[in-house]
Amino acid sequence: MHGQGTGLRVIARDAGDTGRAGDGGGGGESYDGAPTGGVYRASPHRERIIDGTLTCLARHGTTKTTVDDIARQAGVSRATVYRVFPGGRDEMLAAVVDTEMARLFSALGVRLGEAGDLTEALVAGIVEASTRISNHPALAYLVEHEPDVVLGHLAFDESNRLLATASRFTAPFLARWMSPSEAERVTEWATRIVLSYAIAPSPLLDLTDPSDAEHLVTTFVIPGIDALHRAGSRAAIVITPFAVGGRPTPPGAAPTGTTARSSTDHPSSTVPSTTDHPSTTVPSTTDHPSTTEHAKGAIP
Asked: Are 25 and 40 spatial neighbours (Cβ–Cβ below 8 Å)?
């Protein structure tokens, strides 16, 4: 989530690489910080150092964690840490963000790939992401003790890059049931929902609970998607204030490629008919979804 064009780094290991703690110097390691064909050559110690950094962050946060702490936790020397991460602590922290995002998206890919319909995919993705975020020790410490560090990645340009990365990775899984442009926007919407409840949890809704997540999806998300397929609709429907690419959309203008489509364009879609939701309108992404009538009561 740092720098323009944030993407996921692919870590490649040589067949002979092994992780040996306490070698004193990290002999035999090789790390090339510059991408070659999108692949980063990794030291056998890289993952262990990243995991050691996560453990230290969960104990002390970013302000009190030192390179010595990380080296000790990873079982390597200070020289090894700097050999793998020449940029020191800042480079390690950036690598931690990249690695944890890659791990999250890898897990999401498995869950989304197993889904049999759109509702199942959305529920599985929301539950998986919410569970990993809420059960992440380092993130929990930072949210409680250093909220500015977390919020800095969820505001302004950093937020746009995070949403764009999430859309690029997960949208293809949803494109089985809608157009690619719709899939990108629905993915961004779902990501906003997950982040919103992660930052400001509600006592009435636990998105780590599959039944709660399914209730939210079927009550709010599916009807919102259904509006994109409203039969006979000619007006563009904006479900997010950002166009594809993360640039703000001027008031009254529709993002590129977001014109509403007829439900006949998607004969195999599992999205329910608009006749099931005659009064549905697209929820605002700036507020938590809410309703006045449903079995579980209003969701804040």
From this structure: no
